[in-house]
Design brief:
The complex is a heterotrimer of chains A (about 400), B (about 150) and C (about 170). In chain A, about 75% of the residues lie in helices and about 0% in strands. By secondary structure, chain A is mainly alpha-helical. Chain A has one domain. In chain A, strands 2-3 form a two-stranded antiparallel sheet. In chain A, strand 2 and strand 3 form a beta hairpin. Chain B has one domain. Chain B is built from six helices and two strands. In chain B, helix 1 runs antiparallel to helix 2, helix 1 runs antiparallel to helix 5 and helix 2 packs antiparallel against helix 3. Chain C is α/β, with parallel strands linked by helices and about 170 residues long. The longest helix of chain C has 13 residues. Classes of the chains: A mainly alpha (about 400), B mainly alpha (about 150), C alpha/beta (about 170). Chains in contact: A-B, A-C. Chains A and C meet through helix 1, strand 1, helix 6, helix 7 and helix 13 of A and helix 2, helix 3, strand 6, helix 5 and helix 7 of C. Strand 1 of chain A pairs antiparallel with strand 6 of chain C, so a sheet runs across the interface.
């Protein structure tokens, strides 16, 4: 075996004999590329790219969901099922599968849309296919394009300085961006981080603060005006908790050099394949859990357990977080899927500010089940205790938001 | 470098107009009402007006900072970047129009008039700037040949 | 017989792998997409050969979890042929890993990938001479477009273990 120096020495000799470095001419591509990395010019570019990302995301998702899918689900699918499914509003199987109904002026009335019906065959299909699928599809398509063009690593370089403050180097942007699509592959991607400490921090931050594509899609659909606040709160939490975790967890956060690949023209073949793999991967994770969530929440309502839980947790929810006690249902659903939980929240009567708090709450208080399983698989058992500690700190964060509303005089 | 003099003047003027549009968008957004004059409509709202306005403003700054020494590649790349920013915003505006124009209010699809009406003026600033920003392609081509 | 694809992160191993096996590994234009290994099969002279896409690693002294996986893979597959995928525009760094693998006694074949990028940067590499010095096949490739992949496949059987002493001798003082 050679020593490191001997090896480099040998390479030096080899390359002297075989490689000729010509004069490197700056091309326009290089010059434009440089602009995207230097902070002064790179930040406006990043702002524009994110604008484009979000604009196309919401246009496309709105086009599919509001333009067509809502019409199909609310206009045809729901009335048809309400018609042909045996039983009725007072039959438990009907409640579970089709429509749980809701109380209006003391009378149990049927729902007129798939957000409120909350049956396995109505909301359980509408949420993943009607709302989330178009959102996730366009998200992955855009992300794949940015990735294959080569913009993502540049964004990483740009954000590096900010992330450094919370003990994560620029590489952390890769799992974070993946997390905006789905947290499950994002947790796997934390392997590129070097130390245990960094991986642990990233997984925790991902699982708690990064809203996934499914959640973004459903928020765009049900609370388009206030979702900006929700995202701001979550990103704020991401940085604050990152900063705190970095301080309290022992271990190192070493520097790493990022290799910037050249800008390239993406190939249709690769983009198509990658989007397909990611979207189908998402469906495999999402659909079973949405349906399971519908079932569990439905059963809890029918057996009266949910009402009991709502009353039991009522002091905490109304006094500490300042949200209606009915949010307990969505909180339970959030164990399974965040998108389902947000859809369910949209059916509850509350103020704009309570809505923001409760959406933030369902996002942060626990990673969704699929992510949780992934974290366990990747991170081992030590995460369990720490997660419990984090759930506790989430209470502080939720209370803090309530406090902000009180101080602003809106709660 | 006389052959770039016209380019300098052109992108200088375009830069000032772009910058002005950006400022206007931010002012209108801060004011809260949308503004319409002739074929121009400045959107309000945090997203299109505010965020979009910042980008148009940056595009104008890119143009203006690039006109000095235009023939030098690093300077010229700023002009290219200014145009790219306008293309991003205009592209998003156009995509939003397309997605709004196809589905109907009640029925499945929009009526023909409704469909065409979406594309009628007034237009947001980025779309008005779009044709003027395309001139940069001529200059890229010219560089390649040279 | 098994084939391991090894190289730095983001040099196109996954693109290579997909070209060889026709399977669906996610390829990205950023480092660290493959954090776990992937297996696939290719047919060479009517035999099914297992191809393993190893996560990118800078050297055989692992620094993160993905690199650990890479090194462990190499140690487990004692009789594998290693296809070293090197970024031709950063050839020296790639050679470092290659030499490490050669020193461990594995038969090696080198793919100088991203040949187009190297050309853009005006880097000239004397492939014939490099082959003579290293005594293993060296093939310029552009995996994205498929250039050179066929040649790599056809020359896999030429891969053989080389003594590091020979290389030192070949390069001369």
């Amino acid at each position: 075996m050679l020593s490191i120096d001997e090896r480099w020495d040998l390479i030096d000799k080899i390359s002297k004999k075989t490689v000729k470095f010509g004069k490197y001419k700056h091309t326009l591509k290089d010059a434009v590329g440089e602009l995207t990395v230097k902070p002064l010019t790179g930040i406006p570019v990043a702002v524009a790219v994110l604008y484009g990302f979000w604009s196309v995301f919401s246009s496309f998702a709105g086009f599919c969901t509001d333009g067509f899918l809502v019409k199909i689900f609310d206009g045809y699918w729901l009335p048809w099922l309400q018609n042909i499914f045996p039983g009725g509003l007072h039959n438990w199987l009907y409640n579970l599968m089709v429509d749980a109904g809701h109380i209006e002026n003391g009378v149990l009335v049927p729902s007129d849309n798939c957000f409120e019906a909350f049956g396995v065959l109505t909301s359980g299909l509408f949420v993943p296919f009607g709302v989330v699928l178009p959102a996730v599809f366009i998200f992955y398509l855009m992300m794949t394009l940015l990735e294959d063009i080569g913009y993502l690593p540049r964004l990483a370089v740009l954000i590096d300085t900010v992330l450094h403050k919370i003990g994560l180097h620029g590489y952390a942007i890769v799992p974070t961006i993946l997390g905006f699509g789905c947290n499950v592959p994002a947790v796997t991607a934390t392997r590129i981080l070097e130390t245990k400490k960094q991986r642990f921090m990233m997984m925790t931050l991902l699982g708690i603060f990064i809203p996934c594509g499914a959640q973004l899609g459903i928020m765009e659909e049900v609370i388009p005006d206030t979702m900006g606040f929700v995202i701001l709160y979550l990103l704020f939490g991401y940085f604050v908790f990152g900063f705190i975790l970095n301080k309290i967890i022992p271990g190192k956060s070493p520097e790493i050099l990022i290799d910037i690949p050249p800008y390239q023209r993406p190939t249709i073949h690769n983009v198509r394949k990658k989007v397909w793999i990611r979207v189908s991967g998402f469906l495999k994770v999402a659909v079973p859990f949405v349906i399971l969530g519908c079932l569990i929440v439905g059963v809890m309502y029918i057996t009266g357990f949910m009402d009991w839980l709502a009353n039991a947790l009522s002091p905490l929810l109304t006094n500490w977080f300042g949200v209606p006690k009915e949010t307990v249902g969505p909180l339970v659903a959030a164990f399974m899927r965040k998108d389902l939980a947000v859809a369910q929240l949209s059916a509850i009567e509350m103020t704009k500010y309570q809505m923001i708090t409760s959406v933030v709450l369902v996002s942060i208080y626990f990673p969704c089940l699929a992510t949780f399983i992934m974290i366990l698989k990747e991170g081992g058992k030590e995460l369990l205790g720490s997660l419990a500690a984090l759930v506790a700190s989430v209470f502080i964060f939720g209370g803090l938001i309530h406090l902000i509303w009180i101080l602003l005089g809106v709660a | 470098m006389n052959k770039y003099t016209i380019g300098k003047i052109y992108f200088g003027v375009l830069g000032i107009v772009t910058l002005a549009f950006g400022v206007a968008e931010l002012v209108v957004t801060a004011g809260g009402d949308s503004f319409s004059w002739s074929i121009l409509e400045i959107p309000n709202g945090i997203f299109r007006g505010g965020w979009g306005g910042v980008i148009i403003l940056s595009a104008g700054s890119f143009y203006l900072s690039g006109i000095k020494n235009l023939s030098e590649i690093h300077q010229f790349s700023k002009i290219v970047m200014g145009s790219i920013l306008i293309w991003i915003v205009a592209g998003c505006d156009i995509f939003a129009m397309i997605t709004e124009s196809i589905p109907g209010e009640e029925g499945w699809f929009n009526s023909l008039e409704g469909f065409l009406e979406t594309y009628a003026p007034p237009y947001p600033p980025a779309i008005i700037l779009l044709p003027f920003s395309l001139i940069v392609i001529y200059y890229i081509y010219k560089r390649k040949v040279a | 017989m098994k084939i391991l694809l090894m190289g730095h992160p983001n040099v196109g191993k996954s693109v290579f792998f997909n070209r060889l096996t026709g399977s669906n590994v996610i390829e990205s234009n950023y480092p660290g997409t493959t954090v776990d290994y992937t297996k696939g099969y290719m047919v060479l002279e009517n035999r099914d050969i297992e191809v393993i896409d190893v996560p990118g690693t800078f050297s055989l002294e692992p620094k993160d979890k993905a690199e650990e996986v890479a090194v462990k893979m190499l140690e487990e597959e004692k009789d594998a042929i290693v296809v070293c995928v090197i970024d031709a525009s950063k050839i020296e760094r790639g050679l470092y890993l290659t030499l490490e693998i050669i020193e461990k006694g594995y038969p090696v074949i080198i793919a100088l990938n991203m040949w187009d990028v190297a050309k853009d940067k005006n880097i000239e590499i004397d492939v014939k001479n490099l082959e003579k010095i290293l005594e293993v096949p060296v093939i310029p490739t552009v995996a994205i477009s498929g250039e050179g992949i066929k040649e790599v496949v056809s020359r896999i059987k030429e891969a053989k273990p080389v003594k590091i002493k020979n290389i030192i001798k070949n390069v001369g003082g």
